[in-house]
């Protein structure tokens, strides 16, 4: 029996996918699997029972990926599962930026006791007038699951769309409307576009990329949308840009003391993926991936270990080894089994950056001695007997 713990509320539709070999525990230290959304895990003590963390969502900046990798804990996310929910809110964000819908609704609220509200409306409404999206130039930084969907729908709305992503995947490129203009560098987006939306992960290389220097290259009156992570922008610089009239509006999905209530900011309480559909999709994918890993040792959609899938084990035993991506490891693993006369029937080795994962199917189940020999090999982080 495997135990899982939910660090955030996870959609019931997803949790119902767990088969009878899995049960929910209220004790995080007992769990082999943790399901999480945005809860911060960096300061959490990770128990030795923990084998997998599944993020029901895309961004994994709340999870200590390297620390997990060194402990042989596989971290999964659910690529694309909430992209449509975010795309729809980005379109709403663009509309909230170009038309003062929020200001207008607030005015109606304040005038609700005015018996002449209909007449007052016709006088006041010019204060909330705006512009249209059609024919405006939209720049998208990051053409992944969300960026591609935003690009395609913006094209349908009559916008001129520019996309920038130096690492665009083949899959994303296939899905992107061919009418989207390919920006060769991010400066082209800054210099050309009336509205800029950012859809990149928060990494050391992207942190603070929307800063004073970037803003200075943008067109006067630019609109910025940030549905990715607040730390991608230096928001003090953004507020300065708003004060100077350089930035017309900043729409963000990440409230913090800098932007909440600030002039020129439209701040949404992290609702991008908060739709029934996105929550269900993410939870279903997270649960499926976690079950496959805990039962079979197969890794699909991990962010800290390589994909490695050998299906269901039909042999007497399966051992999974987490190790450094260095020379001679497989020879040493094979020797441990060979010395005990155990025949390896199948194996797979995959690497991702500095770490690697090796799955070995064997004709006879591995005993404790072989496991401790494998564990003693320099560069091995963890050995797991899957079967
Ligand atoms: N507001 C919300 O509720 C949500 C926010 N997010 C955030 O949005 C981000 C993007 O999500 P997805 O599109 O699903 O991820 P994704 O992984 O499908 O796409 C990210 C894209 O960014 C590109 N990229 C990386 N560094 C770049 C750079 N320096 N310049 C240009 N492109 C770069 C990658 O090549 C990739 O194509 C997530 O990492 C997460 O932080 C995701 C889902 C919900
Ligand atoms: O679970 C959520 O609502 C957050 C979604 C998100 O930010 C992500 O998937 O990166």
TrEMBL record:
<comment type="function">
    <text>Catalyzes the reversible oxidation of 3-phospho-D-glycerate to 3-phosphonooxypyruvate, the first step of the phosphorylated L-serine biosynthesis pathway. Also catalyzes the reversible oxidation of 2-hydroxyglutarate to 2-oxoglutarate.</text>
</comment>
<comment type="similarity">
    <text>Belongs to the D-isomer specific 2-hydroxyacid dehydrogenase family.</text>
</comment>
<protein>
    <recommendedName>
        <fullName>D-3-phosphoglycerate dehydrogenase</fullName>
        <ecNumber>1.1.1.399</ecNumber>
        <ecNumber>1.1.1.95</ecNumber>
    </recommendedName>
</protein>
<dbReference type="InterPro" id="IPR029753">
    <property type="entry name" value="D-isomer_DH_CS"/>
</dbReference>
<dbReference type="InterPro" id="IPR002912">
    <property type="entry name" value="ACT_dom"/>
</dbReference>
<dbReference type="GO" id="GO:0004617">
    <property type="term" value="F:phosphoglycerate dehydrogenase activity"/>
</dbReference>
<dbReference type="InterPro" id="IPR045865">
    <property type="entry name" value="ACT-like_dom_sf"/>
</dbReference>
<keyword id="KW-0520">NAD</keyword>
<dbReference type="InterPro" id="IPR006140">
    <property type="entry name" value="D-isomer_DH_NAD-bd"/>
</dbReference>
<dbReference type="InterPro" id="IPR029752">
    <property type="entry name" value="D-isomer_DH_CS1"/>
</dbReference>
<dbReference type="Pfam" id="PF00389">
    <property type="entry name" value="2-Hacid_dh"/>
</dbReference>
<keyword id="KW-0560">Oxidoreductase</keyword>
<comment type="pathway">
    <text>Amino-acid biosynthesis; L-serine biosynthesis; L-serine from 3-phospho-D-glycerate: step 1/3.</text>
</comment>
<feature type="domain" description="ACT">
    <location>
        <begin position="318"/>
        <end position="387"/>
    </location>
</feature>
<dbReference type="InterPro" id="IPR006139">
    <property type="entry name" value="D-isomer_2_OHA_DH_cat_dom"/>
</dbReference>
<dbReference type="InterPro" id="IPR036291">
    <property type="entry name" value="NAD(P)-bd_dom_sf"/>
</dbReference>
<dbReference type="Pfam" id="PF02826">
    <property type="entry name" value="2-Hacid_dh_C"/>
</dbReference>
<dbReference type="GO" id="GO:0051287">
    <property type="term" value="F:NAD binding"/>
</dbReference>
């Amino acid at each position: 029996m495997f135990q899982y713990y939910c660090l955030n509320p996870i959609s019931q539709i997803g949790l119902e996918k767990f088969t009878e070999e899995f049960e929910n525990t209220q004790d995080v230290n007992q769990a082999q699997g943790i399901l999480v959304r945005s809860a911060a895990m960096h300061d959490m003590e990770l128990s030795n029972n923990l084998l997998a963390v599944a993020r029901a969502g895309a961004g994994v900046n709340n999870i200590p990926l390297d620390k997990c990798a060194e402990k042989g804990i596989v971290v999964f996310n659910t690529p694309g599962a909430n992209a449509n929910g975010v795309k729809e809110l980005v379109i709403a964000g663009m509309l909230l930026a170009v038309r003062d819908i929020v200001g207008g609704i607030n005015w109606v609220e304040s005038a609700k006791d005015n018996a002449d509200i209909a007449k007052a409306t016709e006088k006041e409404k010019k204060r909330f007038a705006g512009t249209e999206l059609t024919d405006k130039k939209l720049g998208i930084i990051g053409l992944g699951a969300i960026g591609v969907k935003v690009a395609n729908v913006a094209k349908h709305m009559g916008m001129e769309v520019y996309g920038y992503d130096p690492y665009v995947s083949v899959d994303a490129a296939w899905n992107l409307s061919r009418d989207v203009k390919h920006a060769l560098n991010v400066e082209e987006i800054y210099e050309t576009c009336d509205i800029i939306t950012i859809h990149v992960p928060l990494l050391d290389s992207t942190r603070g990329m929307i800063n004073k220097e970037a803003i200075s290259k943008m067109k006067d009156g630019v609109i910025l949308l940030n549905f990715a992570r607040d730390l991608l922008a230096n928001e003090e610089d953004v507020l300065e840009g708003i004060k100077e009239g350089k930035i017309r509006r900043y729409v963000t999905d990440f409230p913090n003391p800098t932007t909440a209530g600030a002039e020129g900011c439209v701040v949404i309480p992290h609702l991008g993926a908060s739709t029934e559909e996105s929550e269900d999709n993410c939870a279903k994918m997270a649960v499926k991936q976690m079950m496959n890993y805990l039962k079979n040792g197969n890794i699909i959609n991990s962010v800290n270990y390589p994909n490695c899938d050998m299906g269901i084990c039909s042999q007497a035993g399966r051992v999974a080894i987490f190790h450094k991506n260095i020379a001679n490891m497989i020879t040493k693993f094979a020797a441990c089994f060979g010395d005990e006369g155990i025949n390896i029937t199948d194996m797979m080795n995959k690497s991702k950056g500095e770490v690697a994962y090796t799955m070995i199917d064997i004709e006879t189940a591995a005993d404790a001695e072989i496991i401790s020999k494998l564990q003693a090999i320099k560069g091995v982080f963890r050995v797991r007997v899957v079967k």
